[in-house]
Amino acid sequence: MAVHTTRMLLLGAVAMFEPVNGYQIRRELVSWHVDEWANLGPGSIYSGLSTLEKLGQVVRHDLDDDGRTVAVYEITDAGRGELARLLGEGLETVTLFNAVAFNAAFGMLPLLAREVAIRHLEVRIEVLDRSTEEWDPGAGELAPPHAVHGVRHWLELLREERSWLVRTIERLRAGDFDLAGEPWRWVPPTDDPGRQMQADRERYRRMLAGLAAEGGSAPVS
Predict the structure, then answer these.
(1) I need a labelling partner for 221 at 20 to 30 A (CA). Which of 69, 137, 159, 163 fits?
(2) Is 206 exposed, middle or buried (0-12, 13-18, 19+ CB in 10 A)?
């Protein structure tokens, strides 16, 4: 998987759940099956967080949580800017054989304002229309017939995606889905790990606020 997609997934997970510990990020991303469709394994998640910290895109707080040290992450302003760029790139870029970046970006659609999400998807339709026309193999192509037929299979999938994008934009304009700055209407099941994550988040916020009051490590958001 391209490095920028790994970075987008990690920044997005931190932005969605901050302040959040490394294990929770790993558990959440594994629940998205990123090891299957994005080739992002557990080991890459921890090393990726370390890289983001060195780049100044996330900040790590080592908190004393009931006698054990827990690494808790928050996204920085630089990280938010990079995430916005990566999400736009992932939503708008059309490739013939690989939709990993788009799948990752669409999974983080709730981080975008509604009009921003719509604009990115409208651009994707424009790019998709140009690309399918450019990639459509003509009768005079110097390629074996089975290869040409295989390319047309990919093009049919992109044309089906176009219809899906149109329907998705219609749903967004109608107010479907929960996006940035709006009330979160979806309620997870009672046994969803996200409920514990939310409780931990509130505890981490209190701990970070306490550190800031004492003049120690301060929250970034």
Answers:
(1) 69
(2) exposed
> Is residue 208 within a helix (H) or strand (E), and if so which, with residue range?
helix 193-213
DSSP line for 3-66: HHHHHHHHHHHHHHH-SEEHHHHHHHHHHTTHHHHS---HHHHHHHHHHHHHTTSEEEEEEEET
Q: Which of 160, 143, 198, 206 is nearest to 28 (CA)?
A: 198
- pLDDT for 158-175, tens place per residue? 999 999 999 999 999 999
Q: Is residue 139 classed as helix, strand or coil in its secondary structure?
A: coil
Measured distance CA(172)–CA(194) in Å, rounded: 25
Query: Which residues on adjacent β-strands are paired with residue 68?
Result: 65
Cβ neighbors of 20 (< 8 A, separation 6 or more) are 13, 14, 72, 73, 197, 200, 201, 204
C-alpha pair distances (Å), 52 with each of 95, 104, 142, 170, 219: 26, 18, 45, 36, 17
Q: Please give the structure tokens belonging to residue 17.
A: 């759940």
Q: Is the dihedral of CA 202, 221, 86, 184 positive or negative?
A: positive
